[in-house]
Amino acid sequence: MKFLTLTVLIVLCALSMAHDYAEHKVHKEEKHDYYAHPKYQFKYGVKDLKTEDIKEQWEHRDGDKVYGGYLLKEADGTTRVVNYHADDHSGFHADVKTIGEAKHPEIHNHESHGKHAGAHYGHAESYFKIEKHLE
Predict the structure, then answer these.
(1) d(CA 65, CA 87)
(2) Alpha-carbon distance values, 66 to 2, 8, 57, 72, 77 (Å)
(3) Stated pTM of the model
(4) What per-residue confidence (pLDDT) applies to 5?
(5) What pLDDT does 57 receive?
């Protein structure tokens, strides 16, 4: 009985391998045109209000011209909006805008005792001024 079971198992494995080989050979012989005119478009988005993960992206390509953009809600409450285009002649160009005003958590001075009394952890001040140029 063990010999019969083992023989059936070996035959099934051999048939499966032969099928996989034949299928692989068919796919291998297919030819792809790597120089075809590229054309596609896509769009997707996420809107998770619980985690405040809000973003979307879109892109359209026809030949050497690409147009696209994305929107992203940042952790500080602002929204970044980027629109871009690219082609073989002028390269890549992006228009980046920030909408809204950044909101940072309030700092509370808690009285504490011990070695680090009065120290604030988890917050840092910027030593570099960033200027925003919005249209």
Answers:
(1) 5
(2) 64, 56, 13, 20, 29
(3) 0.53
(4) 57
(5) 95
